[in-house]
Specification:
Oligomer: heterodimer
Helix content of chain B: 25-40%
Distance between the termini of chain B: 35 Å
Shape of chain B: globular
Number of domains of chain A: 1
Helix content of chain A: 25-40%
CATH superfamily of chain A: Aldolase class I
Number of domains of chain B: 2
Radius of gyration of chain B: 20 Å
Strand content of chain A: 15-25%
CATH topology of chain A: TIM Barrel
Strand content of chain B: 15-25%
CATH class of chain A: Alpha Beta
CATH architecture of the largest domain in chain B: Alpha-Beta Barrel
Order of helices and strands of chain A: EHEHHEHEHEHEHEHEEEHEHHE
CATH class of the largest domain in chain B: Alpha Beta
CATH superfamily of the largest domain in chain B: Ribulose bisphosphate carboxylase, large subunit, C-terminal domain
Chain lengths: ~300, ~350
């Protein structure tokens, strides 16, 4: 039986270049991720800044023997967004497609369909597999029962489950960071860099609810899949994706490695995750088709 | 004459909502060039009680519309549930059998089925597919022979104009009615609060998960237990659509995502026409026939005036003012300042 793999998803947040370089250097040296996704997926306005450090980061990760996948933008609109995707698709690395735009650029070469792609059923998955999809990270709201059906229908496909981190819920043409700071997107002053895990959005009753990251809206809670490796394999899951946050991602990496190796059970994984300074409470409701914010005991 | 010049000299096509057979009749009689509707099940993105068409009603509707020279577009525009894809493919078969002018779809599984099994059925790409770039749109054209794309409401008029120069297919844009602020087809906010969402079940902020709780003289409008807005005693309480609520962020309370406004791009029709847009879409399959009739008449007058080179701006806004009931309006992403 194949061991479950672990991947590190792309950073959604506007981290300064020094932080990105330092973060990935640590991932190169200390993590045991089987695969690391890099690149800006949320905002084209951040590209001119982070573009300067990606080559160095990629080289560092490749030098450490990591498999590197280039993630492309979730909502490309401008010429700059489109050029960025075209450029990444021409590089000699695997690409994660987060919009049909990227798929059009891949022309049959192997690709990963990221969680921003609308693959909700086996028919859509098959059509994309025929065009080169080798891994599918399903939309976060898709229940495990549906994921299992896709996995059974397409045994060659690797299913990568979004297993840790704030849930990417929506993207928009409008920038909510700018709006909250009474600015417009075109003159945003890059205020999203003030919130390395997203800007808290609470209800009028001060209940924690969502978090905003530029044009993206995420959950306030932190998704935590803590199923046993046997349960995960039975559902057809081949890899777990951990989404980067300010919390010590090496510690998160270790918890999940222990979980998929069967060293600890789900309860212990949950307990160890809860000890970390996470940006929100744990949630896993989507797995069972429940509201995404709830924690449902398995 | 270039493709785009040709596009911009043709008359704009008015595409109007038909939530029920009665609304379809109202839209047809009010001068709609096209009407759009869906089946009474999860295959369309307005899966609300009391709305939509049976196969028989669709067949009758197509007959009625055709007799008046109106085209019928049928939305099978949700994402098929894994294991139950046949419910969606049967809907595609039913559209083809009805003689409708086109099908509106978003799911790759549905597009693939329609293109393979009904190659003569005209395919429109739903806004739920959120295709905003020439690469994406050309992909849908080349792969599934999509002939029109309903553009996501994230683009400015300038961007739409540039886009139309780089694609062969027609574009359709929303001009009036409800406004999603999140990119359609890319939003799971509703399921995060309730377990149900447009992509999963064809609903957003569903009524079954709404509660109005009186607390200390204030009415709390909640969705899935989360307070979306709060109203003082005597204040008209709005419906808690998640993205139109008031929230706290950065130490202040605001309509963070969008004010409770609706879209009205009537004033932008000349610009949209110049940008090469083929069709104008009115949102509102949940609306009654009186509303449909009035809004369709207003936009038909606007389109006709544009064809005749007349300025009907004031006349049209007067006709629409009655329909928005003093509600606030926006031109949305068509003007870049919205972002």
């Amino acid at each position: 039986m194949n061991a479950l793999e672990l991947s590190l998803g792309p950073v959604f947040f506007n981290w300064p270049n020094e932080k990105l370089v330092e973060f990935y250097a640590r991932m190169a040296d200390e993590s045991d991720f089987d695969r690391i996704y890099v690149g800006e997926v949320i905002c084209g306005k951040r590209l001119p800044f982070s573009d300067k450090v990606w080559p160095e980061i990629i080289e560092r990760l490749l030098g450490a023997g990591k498999e590197v996948v280039l993630s492309t933008m979730a909502l490309p609109v401008t010429t700059r967004d489109r050029k960025s995707i075209a450029g990444l698709c021409e590089m000699d690395l695997k690409v994660e497609v987060n919009d049909i735009n990227g798929l059009a650029r891949r022309s049959g070469q192997p690709f990963v369909a990221g969680p921003f792609m609308n693959v909700y059923n086996e028919g859509a998955a098959l059509a994309l597999q025929k065009r080169g999809m080798e891994t599918l990270c399903p939309p976060v709201e898709l229940p495990l029962s549906s994921i299992e059906i896709i996995a059974k229908a397409l045994p060659e496909l690797t299913i990568e489950l979004f297993a840790f981190g704030r849930l990417p819920l929506a993207v928009s043409g409008r920038c909510y960071h700018a709006r909250a700071h009474k600015l417009h997107k075109d003159s945003c002053q890059f205020v999203c860099d003030q919130d390395p895990d997203g800007m808290d959005v609470t209800t009028l009753d001060n209940q924690q609810f969502l978090s905003a990251n530029g044009i993206q809206t995420l959950s306030h809670s932190v998704q935590a899949v803590t199923l046993s490796p046997d349960e995960l394999r039975a559902k057809g899951i081949g890899r777990l994706r951990l989404s980067p946050h300010s919390v010590d991602m090496i510690a998160v990496n270790k918890i999940y490695r222990d979980l998929v190796n069967g060293k600890i059970d789900g309860e212990e994984a949950q307990a160890r995750l809860s000890e970390l300074p996470l940006p929100g409470k744990l949630a896993n409701g989507y797995l069972g088709g429940k509201p995404g914010h709830v924690w449902a005991a398995e | 004459m270039s493709e785009n010049t040709l596009k911009s000299t043709q008359s704009l096509e008015l595409v109007c909502p038909a939530g029920t057979p009665a609304a379809m009749k109202a839209a047809v009689e009010a001068g709609a060039h096209s009407v759009y509707c869906g089946f009474r099940n999860e295959t369309n993105a307005r899966n609300f009680p009391g709305l939509n068409f049976s196969e028989r009603e669709l067949n009758q509707g197509v007959k009625l519309a055709r007799s008046k020279g109106t085209k019928v577009l049928v939305a099978v525009n949700t994402f098929a549930r894994a294991g139950d894809v046949s419910l969606w493919t049967k809907a595609v078969d039913a559209v083809a059998a009805s003689g409708a002018h086109a099908i509106i779809a978003a799911d790759i599984a549905v597009l693939d089925y329609a293109a393979t099994h009904h190659p003569d059925l005209r395919l429109h790409l739903s806004v739920q597919a959120a295709a905003a770039t020439p690469e994406a749109i050309n992909f849908y054209e080349e792969t599934f022979n999509v002939q029109r794309v309903v553009l996501p409401r994230v683009m400015s008029v300038e961007e739409i104009e540039r886009l139309n120069k780089e694609i062969n297919v027609e574009t359709e844009v929303f001009v009036f009615g409800g406004l999603c602020v999140m990119t359609e087809g890319r939003c799971a906010l509703s399921s995060y609060a309730t377990g149900k969402s447009p992509n999963l079940t064809g609903v957003c902020s569903p009524p079954g998960d709404v509660s109005y709780d009186d607390e200390g003289g204030n009415l709390h409008a909640r969705l899935g237990g989360f307070t979306i807005d709060r109203f003082e005693n005597g204040e008209a309480a709005g419906y808690p659509t998640l993205c139109k609520g008031r929230f706290n962020a950065q130490g202040s309370t605001s309509y963070l995502f969008e004010d409770p406004v609706s879209l009205n791009a009537a004033a932008l029709l000349p610009r949209l026409k110049k940008a090469g847009v083929t069709a104008l879409k009115i949102e509102g399959r949940q609306r009654g026939k009186a509303y449909i009739s009035q809004v369709v008449k207003a936009f038909r007058a606007a389109v006709d005036a544009l064809d005749e080179g007349r300025d009907a701006q004031q006349e049209v806004s007067a006709m629409l003012a009655a329909m928005t009931e003093g509600g606030r309006e926006t031109t949305g992403a068509y003007k870049k300042i919205w972002r």
